[in-house]
Each structure stands twice: as structure tokens, then as C-alpha cells.
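Lecture notes, unit on binding sites. The following record was shown on slide 14. It pairs a sequence with nicotinamide-adenine-dinucleotide.
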Amino acid sequence: MNDFNPSRRTFITTTAMAGFGAALASRTAWGSVRADDRIRIGLVGCGGRGTGAAAQALNADPGVVLVAMGDAFKDRLDSSLANLLKEPVKDRVDVPAERQFVGLDCVDKVLPLVDVILLCSTPGFRPEQLAKAVAAGKHIFCEKPVCVDAPGYRSVIESTRLARSKGLCLASGFCWRSASPERAIFGEILSGRLGEVVSINATYLTGPLGTRRRQEGWSDLDFQMRNWQHFNWLSGDHIVEQAVHSVDKINWGMGGRHPTRCTAIGSRFCREDIPECGDIYDNFTCTWEYENGPRAVLMTRQQPNCFNLNDDWINGTKGYAWVNGWGPTHWIKDYSGKTIWAYPKDGATPDMYQVEHNTLFKSIRDGRPINEGEFMADSCMMAIMGRMAAYSGQRLSWEDAVASNEVLRPASIDGSIPILKAPKPGDRKGTT
Ligand SMILES: NC(=O)c1ccc[n+]([C@@H]2O[C@H](COP(=O)([O-])OP(=O)(O)OC[C@H]3O[C@@H](n4cnc5c(N)ncnc54)[C@H](O)[C@@H]3O)[C@@H](O)[C@H]2O)c1
């Protein structure tokens, strides 16, 4: 499988540019893919999620072939490739040494070789990787979060519009949007089963994430990237990196409209004086306000030895809903306490990570490009807004948060990159 069919490559690219592919749809309906109807994919960011995403992409369509991989670190690429070569789909893993790329610029080397790119590196790099993928005319799977600051958000919105105008597929890694039980209950909510949604109360309470001690020979960049979840410029803080799943469910339940304002508190109690724990907080509580009064509240923390919870209470004018983050036991009750809807005990629970790739590759085959860019960017911006409100101690409007010019990435990442101190609320302006 070293020789890729150039006519096939041209076909995918040209049809993408031209509204993408009614002809392809009629030739290659889902499930009837010929051997030469290969879709070449490339992976950027070969960590745990990237490796999983590549396997799911390979499982989604028998024509998918993994042809190129890139990572900032060689050991990560090597272990990802070794794991993929143990999968049942290993025959369609075709990544010889000359198509393995190491370094922060690996995306530039992977893109020209593929039809579809899986963007699964650390979020701090995502907006520019996404912009490059769209400029190159590639279909995209884009892990969450897609940005860590407002300039990144604006860039992702621009890429989203451009992807749509080029007929490119843009699939998001907000996996709960592909989970059957969540799709069912949010479908009920959005079709009015609760009446008007007036409040949402979400929790994302977990323990801390793992860290890596600094090793001999590591530069500041190596050290921070090996502990990327704990460095703001790489992760956006844990509200953006992890709890953004709950923020996305808030955004979903509120019908995708933008909040008007946000007030938040947060702090760092359990991460003091641990260099690997970077400059992030370990807890946030945020309130987003919506036009005409609805509010959404999120509590999130990463602290050890505490009660953990991940759920959403959604209150409407006619009833209330419970979405259980740890199992498909969601229900809706009216205000007499009577259950008016529940996810069936024997309801389907297909692997949501697989479903998101099945949907993406079907949309490519069918020539009906999905584009999930707006909600994936908006949910991330809501989380960024929460972080900004907590750090600054100020109440922020959506417009001011989105207009912020605060860039989290250090001006240079070549030499020394000092570890910043986590901000004390009230010390920073909300926007700059
Ligand atoms: N949807 C989900 O449920 C889910 C679950 C886990 C992780 N994620 C997301 O997936 C992304 C990756 O998370 P992970 O758990 O796989 O982390 P990870 O640390 O295992 O992998 C990230 C990889 O990206 C590489 N990388 C960093 N910068 C790069 C660059 N500029 N170019 C190429 N490679 C680069 C790192 O070296 C690392 O190998 C994150 O955004 C994370 O939030 C999503």
C-alpha cells in the first residue's frame, strides 16, 4: 500500500472544492466502498486520544488508510504507531519512516499527504493547525478544546466559515454529541418537553490529572509540553480542557445561543508549589446569564480525596431533566414528580467515539459535509469566558470576552519559558 491512487486523490480534493461530491455519493454509497476508493488520513498528535481517533477512523470505513503521522515527540509517535499495528485494522496502517514527522511543524508535512486530518494534539496549537488544514482543502476531525483564548476562538470561527464555503467536513470531538442517550434527552429538551429552559446546573468534579517530573535534558518546552494539561497556554486551564464537555452540554441545552454575561470564582488550593502543576486553578464555579433571565451554573474541580460527580440538572417551565454523565439513566419529570420520559433501560449505547467517526466518514462518502465548527468553538469560548471571569474577578459580557486580545502562548517558546503564577482574582483585567 505504498502507492496511492492519484486520480482518487484528485477526485476527493476537487469534489471538496466544488460543493463536494454528488458524483462520489452515487458511486460509493456507504458500505459499498471499492478497494481503490481509499481515503487517506493523517494523525497529528499521537497521544492517547489521537491513537484512539485513528483506530476509530480506520474502523469507520473500509476504504480509510492511515498514511502519515506527526507528533512533537518521537517516543509518542512510536508508541502510537506500535499500538495501532496491534489493532484488527493494522493492514490499513501504512506509515513508513518517511511519513513519520516529529516536531511542532509536523502538521505542515502531514497535510499534503492526506485527504482527512485528525487534529488531536494539545489544544494550544489547534486554531493554527485547523486554519492550515482548511487552507489545504482537507476534511477535518478536530478534538476538543479547539482554542484556549479569544484570538484562537475568532480564528476557529473564521476557519469554520471557510471550511463551509469550500465544502469541507469539519467534525468536532465533543463526543457526547454523538452519544445516543444524550442525543435522545437533548432532543426531547430542544423539542420543548420541558417548556422553556430556565436554568442548568452542571457538575464536573474529578480528581487531579497525572504529572511528569522534570527529567535530565528536558528544555522548558519539553517539560511544559509533557505536563501540558497544567499549563494555561497549552490547555486553557482545566475548565477549558476537561469541564468543557459540561459547558458544551450547557450550550446544547440552551439551544446554542450565546450567553450575555458571565461571573465566576476559582482558585488553586491543592496545586501550590508543584512545578508540574503549572499555572492552572483546581476549581471554578461559573454562572452564565442568558437574555431574558435563564442562567447556567457549572461547578468543576480537580482535587484529590473529594466527592466526584458529573451530571446536569436542566430546569424548564414545565419540568426538569437529569443527565447522568456516568451512565445512560437520564430522565425527565414534570413538577408533580412524575417521570414523563426516561432513556430506555435496554436503549442503545454505541461507542460515541466510534459514532463520531462513522458520521464523519459517511458525510465524506455521501458528499454531504457536516460542519460542527460553530458549536465546538462557542462551547470552548464559554469555558474561556468562565476562566477569564474567575481570574479577573470581573463580570464579563460575551462581546468583551470574544473581543479580548489576550494571547496565552508565550511570545517565544524557543528558550526559557518561565512558569507563570496562577492569577489572583482581582489582579488582572477581565479583558485586554
Ligand atoms: N473527546 C474526549 O473525550 C477526549 C478525551 C481525551 C482527550 N481529549 C482531547 O484530545 C487532545 C489530546 O489529548 P490526549 O489525552 O491524547 O493527550 P496526550 O498528551 O496523550 O497526547 C497529545 C499529543 O500531542 C502531541 N503534541 C503536542 N503539541 C503538538 C504539535 N504542535 N504537533 C503535533 N503533536 C503535538 C504531544 O506530544 C502528545 O503526544 C486534547 O485536546 C484533549 O483535551 C478528548
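Take-home: The chain has 15 helices and 15 strands.
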